[in-house]
Design a protein that fits this description.
The protein has about 150 residues and is mostly helical. The protein has one domain. It is built from seven helices and no strands. It has helices at about 5-40, 45-50, 55-75, 75-95, 100-115, 120-135, 145-154. The longest helix is centred in the N-terminal third of the chain and has 36 residues, at about 5-40. It is elongated, with a radius of gyration of 21 Å.
Length: about 150
């Protein structure tokens, strides 16, 4: 299916917005993990451990799980890659006015090959953002509860 230039010029801000939403999502996750890691190392846990050893043990186990998730997900690396994608799409948006539809399609295809990992529930959220920006309210997608939550986080 060949897209015309107007449709392609909507695809570019959509891709950029998707990356921006993903950056915000990972930044909030990173902030949460950092806060929990600092809390786990604080003296407040030591004070609780003296009075409630069982509760402190469970809290330390939960903090350990969050620390492991932080190492497994590596949000800082994902944020850096997504920032590069945002800049890449911003450059394409700037160039798109001077190009014809096949050239935009080719550059968009090339850009998508090097995109960072994606968070699928954020696709509809980013799409709705762009549709709201261009005042196409009848094109909005109904979001699932998970997508609504992801939209709030991102």
């Amino acid at each position: 299916m060949e897209l015309d230039k107007d449709q392609l010029q909507i695809e570019l801000p959509y891709a950029q917005r998707f990356c921006q939403r993903s950056v915000r999502f990972y930044r909030r996750i990173q902030t949460t993990f950092t806060f929990i890691s600092l809390l786990a190392g604080s003296s407040a846990i030591a004070a609780i451990a003296a009075q409630m050893p069982v509760a402190a043990t469970w809290m330390l186990a939960a903090f350990s799980v969050f620390g492991i998730l932080n190492f497994a997900i590596r949000p800082a690396e994902k944020i850096a890659a997504l920032h590069a994608d945002v800049r890449k799409y911003a450059a394409l948006i700037t160039k798109s006015d001077l190009l014809d539809a096949p050239a935009i399609q080719h550059l968009l295809h090339e850009a998508r090959q090097t995109d960072a990992e994606e968070i699928e529930p954020l696709r509809a959220v980013a799409y709705n953002d762009v549709m709201l920006e261009i005042d196409e309210l009848d094109s909005l997608i109904e979001l699932s509860p998970v997508q609504k939550l992801m939209g709030v986080l991102a």
